[in-house]
UniProtKB/TrEMBL annotation, chains A, B:
Keywords: FAD, Flavoprotein, Oxidoreductase
Pyridine nucleotide-disulphide oxidoreductase dimerisation domain span: 344-447
Gene: pdhD
InterPro entries: FAD/NAD-bd_sf (IPR036188), FAD/NAD-binding_dom (IPR023753), FAD/NAD-linked_Rdtase_dimer_sf (IPR016156), Pyr_nucl-diS_OxRdtase_dimer (IPR004099)
EC number: 1.8.1.4
FAD/NAD(P)-binding domain segment(s): 10-320
Name this protein carries in UniProt: Dihydrolipoyl dehydrogenase
Family annotation (SUPFAM superfamilies): FAD/NAD(P)-binding domain, FAD/NAD-linked reductases, dimerisation (C-terminal) domain
Lineage: Bacteria, Pseudomonadati, Pseudomonadota, Alphaproteobacteria, Rhodobacterales
GO molecular function: dihydrolipoyl dehydrogenase (NADH) activity; flavin adenine dinucleotide binding; NAD(P)H dehydrogenase (quinone) activity
NCBIfam families documented for this protein: PRK06292.1-1
Signal peptide start and end residues: none
Cofactor: FAD
Amino acid sequence: MQTNKPIKVDTVIVGAGSAGLSALREVRRYTDDFLVVNDGHWGTTCAAVGCMPSKALIEAAHAFHRRLTFEEFGIQGAEGLRANIPAVLARVRRMRDGFVKGPESVPDKLGDRAVSGRARLLGPGRLEVNGDEIEARAIILTPGSRPVVPGPWRTFGDRILTTDSLFEQDDLPRRIAVVGMGAIGVEMAQALARLGLDVAGFDAAETLAGIDDRQVLEAFRPLIEAEMGLHTGASAELEDAGGTIRVSGAGGVFKADAVLVAIGRRPNIDGLGLDTLGVPLDDKGMPRIDPATLRIGEMQVFLAGDANGYRPLLHESADEGHIAGRMAAPDASDHGLCRRTALSIVFSSPQVARVGPPLSDLDEDTTVSGNADFSDQPRARIAQTAAGLLRLHAERETGRLLAAEMCVPAAEHLAHLLALAVERQMTVADMLAMPFYHPVLEEGLRSALRDLAKGVAAVGGSDLSDCKPMGHDALD
Amino acid sequence: MQTNKPIKVDTVIVGAGSAGLSALREVRRYTDDFLVVNDGHWGTTCAAVGCMPSKALIEAAHAFHRRLTFEEFGIQGAEGLRANIPAVLARVRRMRDGFVKGPESVPDKLGDRAVSGRARLLGPGRLEVNGDEIEARAIILTPGSRPVVPGPWRTFGDRILTTDSLFEQDDLPRRIAVVGMGAIGVEMAQALARLGLDVAGFDAAETLAGIDDRQVLEAFRPLIEAEMGLHTGASAELEDAGGTIRVSGAGGVFKADAVLVAIGRRPNIDGLGLDTLGVPLDDKGMPRIDPATLRIGEMQVFLAGDANGYRPLLHESADEGHIAGRMAAPDASDHGLCRRTALSIVFSSPQVARVGPPLSDLDEDTTVSGNADFSDQPRARIAQTAAGLLRLHAERETGRLLAAEMCVPAAEHLAHLLALAVERQMTVADMLAMPFYHPVLEEGLRSALRDLAKGVAAVGGSDLSDCKPMGHDALD
């Protein structure tokens, strides 16, 4: 095989995940002379083991948890409800199987332009797959990422779970430790606890769900702590204790039947041959990449999606594939494409969300903040979901909205509203001019805007702008 | 009493509802020499009989209805759940009692500047209350509205319910006809049906929930029809049939134990003495008012809130009180205050919402539309809420977003996002530049934006704007 002449192709995409498939859409605009090389299952992380199955588990868990509100609502019989874990997991897989059909069908659709195998760079414009050498004008690398599991923990065998294996379980044991309480850890720990399992959460850091703002964390932490044991601030140690795993961390020990490891994901760049490109790599083997182009050095080689570690989120991976695909075109402009306002959402309850940069990146001297406490928000009280805190940050001088972080009900929706405002560089006054219906959670956001407005020089008077009379006929 | 000299006061506010209390806040900025005159209960329509208790009933009903999703989620025992109607209604009143505390406390807070009684205008700057004559520089009329019940139906006594009496019931009979399927009728009919009552809805018109767009109505109607009998397109007739009321309407007859009448609300302007102002009144006794000033004629007399029939919604009433209060100031500018983008939300399931003018007010020749079907929306499928249609309308030439109407899950949130966009005169491209997380319902909105973009000349290429490379350090 290796004696064959190199296969020549215009563009190679390595990895058929969300970034790769997004790149493919753009590549097809300029050429049909491409290959998509994929190692392992043709299914995106998001659809197969990420956003979609996790959300399916969370929906079931939160639906079951709502039974605790039933008596107050006047609904009887909640004590007879049971979460059937095997049935819950079976439904998660049914949903998942539907969502992966799209990416799974890619090889059929692409025919011999789809190659199953592991790609390894041989240098700029050259790679090897299944023993064949390929020469390509442009190479788009979207190899994705995988869950990190510390080597020694692998000895616990299938009692160690990750999001790769969690949704494959037919049933779950009663006691589950979750190590790593970032976005995924908090989502899964809370979902499993709400399904009736005995859950304890561990993290080496003090924060939860990736929250940066100390005030938001202080509002969030007791809400999570009410549902599970929390051990944060020291690395978790695992020890075999017969049939169970003894997990020790900050402030306590938990005997677990299984441990869900959610301490992060590692870019799949090992063995990719990035060292053959002749550009500097950092100590993790990662080259520098410009987020606006995803280009490595000055080459026609791009690294996009989770694998570059920049913003490992589905919507960002889709954007990165899009950018890389456009930048790889023979006639691409020198300019890149602007990245959107950062937006992250954690599907806990209450949800956690951040818009724009973290508070710790803002300049204290020129920034003013506004808060809204949702523990007494009227609409949320009606729905029995009142809890949490929303914080907004703006430029003091101009009132321009810079960032927000929150742990509140329906944060996913409030965060989109704020993301539009930040993206469009709106001021506090711009936002206060919009209608706020009643009773809605957006009124809580308005409270934060009003609080923020107090600190902004440019805001005052009426939310409504000066207007010539509209003419009497408007009321006819 | 009537021989007493007139009481002189700078400003009188007639009605201590949402508009009146909002006006009061502004009036106090320029004078302490005011009176607030209120007829009947010192509690706003919204808090006492409107938005708040209705939402409390709806939350309970929808929470109970979710049991139908439990088996699919893997949750067992839903068949043992029961809605205890007296307990549900008792909770509605508990919530309501909390929300009315604010307005109920107004007389105590204002002392002798609060007057309980019915006000009647005697002419510009003059009115009579409890036999006393009052002379005022400015008069702000916010008398509110009340449910309409056709006179002959009153003979059915307490078997006729309105939102004034519904939440006061200790229990509800099994069979309830809802006459009038506008926003309130649809909300209450669906809530009662979901609580297990046998409900039929009647309306003289063909539309439901105030939907203007035929396509949205066609998507919404079968969803409501699956939960109750619907008789629309002919006036309902009521007839006594012994213990029951025989309600006949389009396509059928329903034997009801009680009838909830929700055919509209009537401004409380009868007996207000508007005829003494010397301005033309229409055949309903209503003067012309400018929405930007709420002023009647050129006088210092203002008519704000539900009573003027312009936009009888809480947030608009609050704005109108605000505007009237500012316009009533001695040093008020000639200009009025601009009204916000119209926004209405119906808390049905799926929710119905409209942003901007109704489709029927738009110019077909210059408008382009985009649709998103939510019956297959991925996030909604995960939550078992997939249903409905969202429609957007923009100016063809510029892509400027003009209006939206929808019946989709979480419409209240999508509508706020769209209201901000319409208020800020954004284009389709402006909106497509924002981040859309995954998986979220906002992605359904994005589908509609993309559909819309096809018809807009000015949109194409990438959602992301052209950007100079951001510099390699961004990834460090």
